[in-house]
Amino acid sequence: MKYAVLLTEKPDGGIRVSVPALPECAVEANTRDEAIRLAREAIAGVVSRSEIVHIDVPQPPRDTAADGGVPWEWFGAATGDPTWDALFDDIERRRDVTRKGR
Amino acid sequence: MYLWDANIVRHFGQGHPTLQLHLSRVPWAEIALPSVVVAEVLRGRCDFALKAAPAEAPLAHRRLLETQQMLLRFRIVVFDEACAGVMEQLRRTHKRRKRYADLMIAAIAAAGSHIVVTRNQADFADLLPPIQVVNWIDNPPR
């Protein structure tokens, strides 16, 4: 399995390695090669002691669509836009076609 | 839930004053779009974006994304299996006399006990009980 690791040069020399997928996994080294080697060992150490478990959380996430109240920024936003009228004229036209077609 | 027909979305975009009065009285959480209307609006905007002449295409694509962002602010009631069952009954009863999208919207409303908000109440007159169809454009709130 491949892990992305972040190698960051420290101001006082040396390299700090962090692993975005494993936030607790971080090492430091003097050279790039050593940093990568230590990172590989550190990741292997964490992974060998870990398992992935998928858990089901019944509570749905907060419904952001309705949280903010009426989206007034969109109310009247199409005023004077001829493409808006054309859009809804076309919807009505397409609906009318289905009256006879089915 | 108040289910908006496409013509109400049209007037929302145009800032209709009577619709504004209703919106100031009804919690936004009680307003939703049927997935049918979402599909119709996006189909129209997608067609516009994909068929526009080069000079018109930038506007068409901008409008597609703007409309998508606006639709994201609505709750959406999806046409599910229960709606499909109601729809079959409605089609048997109203064969060849009703518009397909109107039947789908009526089926969503009937299956979920929602109220259809539309300017074309006549389209739903024999599909839903009168109390389940309201007009927020021509009838101001009491």
Structural class of chain A: alpha+beta
Strands in their spatial order, largest beta sheet of chain B = 3-2-1-4-5
The main β sheet of chain A shows up as:
3 strands, antiparallel
Overall pLDDT confidence of chain B: 94
Shape of chain B: globular
Largest sheet of chain B: 5 strands, parallel
Beta-strand percentage range of chain B: 5-15%
Largest interface: A-B, 29 and 40 residues
Number of strands of chain B: 5
For the record, give the distance between the C-alpha atoms at the N and C termini of chain B, rounded to a whole number: 19 Å
Radius of gyration of chain A: 28 Å
Name the structural class of chain B. Answer: alpha/beta
Structure description:
By secondary structure, chain A is an alpha+beta fold. Chain A has a domain at 6-48. Chain A is built from three helices and three strands. Chain A has helices at 32-48, 64-67, 82-101, and strands at 6-9, 15-18, 26-29. The radius of gyration of chain A is 28 Å and the shape is elongated. The model of chain A has no long low-confidence stretch (mean pLDDT 87). Helices cover 52% and strands 11% of the residues of chain B. Chain B has six helices and five strands, in the order βααβααβααββ. A five-stranded parallel sheet of chain B has the order 3-2-1-4-5. In chain B, α3 (35-51) runs antiparallel to α4 and α5 (81-93) crosses α6. The model of chain B has no long low-confidence stretch (mean pLDDT 94). Chains A and B meet through α3 of A and α1, α3, α4 and α6 of B.
In short:
Chain A is α+β, with helices and mostly antiparallel strands and 102 residues long. Chain A is 40% helix and 12% strand. In chain B, helix 3 runs antiparallel to helix 4.
Topology (elements, then pairings):
The complex is a heterodimer of chains A (102) and B (142).
Chain A: E1 6-9, E2 15-18, E3 26-29, H1 32-48, H2 64-67, H3 82-101
Antiparallel strand pairs in A: 1-2, 2-3
Chain B: E1 2-4, H1 6-14, H2 17-23, E2 31-34, H3 35-51, H4 57-71, E3 75-77, H5 81-93, H6 100-112, E4 115-117, E5 133-134
Parallel strand pairs in B: 1-2, 1-4, 2-3, 4-5
Helix pairs in contact in B: 3-4, 5-6
